[in-house]
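[User]
Um, tokens okay?
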Amino acid sequence: MQVSEIVKDSERFNPVPQTVLSVATDILDDIEGASEEEEDDYMFNEGELEEEDDETTGIEDDGEPPAWFTSQQRMDELRSTWRRSEKDTGSPEFQVAGMTERISYLTKHLQQNPKDYSTRRGLVALVNKRRRLLNYLIREDEQKYADIISSLGIRHKAPGRVESREDKYGRFNKQKSVKKHLQKK
């Protein structure tokens, strides 16, 4: 349908004086004629630009997906492996699996950006939080602790047991007895 036909159809509903209508159609005809003649003014012709497919979006120039995307996929995979149930998001195994991947991603980031001190601070906090979760896990279930440490490749030193007062100070000599004048009466 041409623009002039649309103008004529719209004239049926909104009557416009004939002079205004003829001027508008002349302008529209000039614009349509000019666009057909001036195809060389554009840097690219239609069809020269490649359309992005769904498969290529998110891929960097080297053909590899971005590091954050790969890390996110690996984190989802690890979390689904260590999930206790379908709706589990808070179990220590689930959290440790996600934190381990985030720690590896942040470590790679800091190797490339050594002056990024705020990320370094966040990484240290994340490592400490994972350590506390692993300490909890070893107290609750040693078998799951051993499984998760071996499968994720985490270096973690299990906390030692807390010594009793006698064990801690038993190797030292007993304190001298309190002198009579210092005793409370």
